[in-house]
Amino acid sequence: KPVRYVADVTEERKGQVAKKVEKLETDVMQTLQRSLSSVDNTSTQLTRQAKEVRNDIRQAGERSKDMVDAHVRQMIQEVKDMEETRHKVLDQQHDELKAH
Questions:
Q1: What is the CA radius of gyration of the chain?
Q2: What is the tens place of the pLDDT at every residue in 65-90?
Q3: DSSP string, 64-95
Q4: Residue 55: its H or E element
Q5: What is d(CA 60, CA 86) in angstroms, rounded to the nearest whole number?
Q6: Considering all CA atoms of the chain, what is the largest pairwise distance in Å, rounded to the nearest integer?
Q7: Of 1, 43, 46, 70, which sits with the fewest C-beta atoms within 10 Å of its C-beta?
Q8: CA distance 92 to 85
């Protein structure tokens, strides 16, 4: 076996350590990028969901407003109909009284 000098072994070790450190740095960077990407995707999804919820709330508000408006219009019409009927009855009674 050839004799290996301490300096050679040390250089060899330095090279191995440097490669391991480089690989670790690469792994850390890739993990960070995956995490950031995941955070971006989650953020995008949450933003989209928030928009959908706001739309749903707005639409529900519009629907309930439309329902209330329709109900109010119906009640107003019923009051008008009752007034009309009342006038007809009063006119009829008035005519009957004049006839007597």
A1: 43
A2: 999 999 999 999 999 999 999 999 99
A3: HHHHHHHHHHHHHHHHHHHHHHHHHHHHHHHH
A4: helix 6-99
A5: 39
A6: 145
A7: 1
A8: 10
